[in-house]
Amino acid sequence: MRYLQGTPHQLPGNSRALADYQAAHFKFEVRAGVATVTLNRPERKNPLTFDSYAELRDLFRALAYADDVKAVVITGAGENFCSGGDVHDIIGPLTKLDMPGLLAFTRMTGDLVKAVRACPQPVIAAIDGICAGAGAILAMASDMRLGTERSKTAFLFTRVGLAGCDMGACALLPRLIGQGRAAELLYTGRSMGGAEAERWGFFNSLHSPDALLAAAQALAQGLATGPTFAHGMTKKMLQQEWNMGVDEAIEAEAQAQAICMATNDFHRAYHAFVAKQKPEFEGN
Fold it and tell me: What count of Cα atoms within 13 Å lies in the side-chain half-sphere of residue 11?
C-alpha cells in the first residue's frame, strides 16, 4: 500500500533488472532480491584476473540501478574465498607494463573498491579458507564479513615487494580493526586466523564451513525484506561521514532521516505498529 501522494519516478536509465545477467568471469545469480557473486576458480583458490576485476567493477556499478537486487553476498567456490591477483595472469604481466599501464591497473582495482562501497545494497562477504591480497581487500570493502575458524586473511602486498597501501587498505582497515592492528597486518603480511579476525572485529561472526553461505544469505535475505531505501541511506552515511566533523555528521543525518521519513516504508511501519502487525517494506 502506498501512503504518499505522487507518482514513482521513471527516469530513463535509472532502473534495470540484473536477474538475467550472465557473468563471464564468475558465477552470479539473483534469488528473492539477494544477488550472490561466486568467484569460481576453485582449482587455484579463486584468484582475480584483469578481466574479472573489470567485470566485478562494472557489475557493482550497475547494482546502483538494479531494482531487483536488495542485498549482495560475495563468496568463493570450493573451500577458499580468494587468493588475490593471479600470479600468472596479473603479476607476471604487470612486470612488463610501463608506468601509465601500471597506473591504469591500480586505478581499475581501486575503482572496484569504490563501486562496492558506492552501491546502495548492503554487501556481505562469506569467507572460508584463503582470503589474501586483493581478496582480503574485497572482503574489507564489504559492509559485513562472515568467516570460519579455518579462514586465513592476509594482506600480502609487502611479501611481493609492494606497499601495504593498496586499494584503500590504509584508509579502510584501521577503521575496522584499529590503527595498530592494521599496521601490523599491512607491514608484516601475516595471516589472521578466523578466531583472531572475529576478536579484532574484522569478522562479524564465525560459522562452520558448511553453514557459512547459508548464514550469509539468510542475513542478506533479512536485509532484502527490510526498508531497503533506508538501508541505502545508512550505507551512504557510513561512507560519507568519515570525512565530516561531528556537527556536520549530525546535520547530514538529520537531512537523511527527514528524507526517510518521507518514504512509504516509514508510513507502512507506523500503520503496521498501530495494527500490531509486522510491516511489509517495499523499498520506497
Answer: 5
Cβ 130 vs Cβ 155: under 8 Å: no
| Of 105, 126, 127, 124, residue with least CA distance to 57 | 105
| DSSP states of 131-158 | EETHHHHHHHHSSEEEE-TT-EEE--GG
- The grid cell for 51 is 578481466
C-alpha cell at 39: 568467484
Nearest one of 29, 33, 106, 121 to 75, comparing CA atoms? 29
pLDDT digits (tens, 9 = 90+) for 63-116: 999 999 999 999 999 999 999 988 888 888 999 999 999 999 999 999 999 999
**CA 217 – CA 224 distance, rounded (Å):** 10
Q: Mark the ranges of the chain whose per-residue pLDDT is less than 70.
A: 8-13
**Rounded to an integer, what distance in angstroms lies between the CA atom of residue 87 and that of residue 93?**
9
Contact yes or no for 205/166 (Cβ under 8 A): no
Report pLDDT for 9: 67
* pLDDT score, position 5: 74
DSSP string, 179-215: HHHHHHHHHH--EEEHHHHHHHTS-SEE--HHHHHHH
Q: Which residues contact 257 (CB under 8 A, 6 or more apart)?
A: none
Which helix (H) or strand (E) is 8 found in, with range? none
The Cα 149–Cα 118 span in angstroms is 30
Going by DSSP bridges, is the β-strand pair 123-127/130-132 parallel, antiparallel, or unpaired? Answer: unpaired
Cα 81 to Cα 47, 132, 193, 211: the distances in Å are: 9, 8, 14, 15
> Among the residues of 89-145, which ranges form H helices?
92-94, 99-118, 134-141
Residue 181: HSE in the Cβ half-sphere, 13 Å Cα cutoff = 17
> Quick one: cell of 224?
532484502
